[in-house]
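Researcher: Here's the sequence for the chain we discussed earlier.
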Amino acid sequence: MWQQIIVALIVLVALAHFCTKYLPAALRRQIVAGLSKRGFDEARMAKLFNIKSGCGDDSGCSSCGSCDSAPPAKSDTSAPLKRVIKLHVQR
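Model: Thanks. This is the structure I predict for it:
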């Protein structure tokens, strides 16, 4: 009996860790919005799920600023940037 309770707790903690770390940000925002509608503190849940508070409301984007960020403009130089990976072969 105790073993099943302990295993269930370990699985719940692992699931919570997965949800807070590896889920996409949009899905984490939806989870925070759903939890805040059920009475949980939105700021605390946003901190736990690594998102900014206010992103999950129904009115759309609020103050997170992620929608305002545009991709960086391309430079007008004719030579494209090249990255070189140096390999050191050991024989």
